[in-house]
Here is the input.
Amino acid sequence: ALPGQILWINIVEDAFPVMALAFDRGDKENMKDAPRKKNDPIVDKEMRAMIIVKSIFANIILFSLFIYFYNTTEDIVLTRTIVFVGFGVDALFYIFAIRSLRKPFWHTNPFSNPYLILSVLFGWCMLVLAVYWGPLQKLLKTVPLISEHWVILLCFGLFNLFLMELIKGIFLFKQEHKFITTS
Here is the structure.
């Protein structure tokens, strides 16, 4: 992806949904945790592991898509557009997985935060405009994608969402198991 495309993803596709999380209702179980110690890191080892594992898998898949599409089409602009959209789709899917680190996304009401829904819809609209609207195509150096590209990229987004849920599930299982054995 080009620098302008990365900036677009960071500002339009990622920033608005993340800001909308500020309006999420707090998790009722937050107060059950013991207070953190003064010197405890903000990002604990579980969060670090989630970030690392998800990043490695997502980047390997995107890099593989880059290699595949470049080798089969020899069209660098199309290939960059696919990777650009891949980053955007990823951001618009995984936001639902990180709403709660205590429960799976299907146990949360997606409509309880209308700002999140609006920001994700805005992100999808802006991503589609970036790929199909002439002025944004020129600015971001994108080309139109066909439906097969979108299917692949939507599968990529869903894979990342479920990967995050799998990682969360592993840590939640470990925490529950640790709680049971120490009680």
Summary: The CA atoms of residues 73 and 95 lie 32 Å apart. The two ends are 50 Å apart (CA to CA). DSSP finds six helices and no strands in the chain.
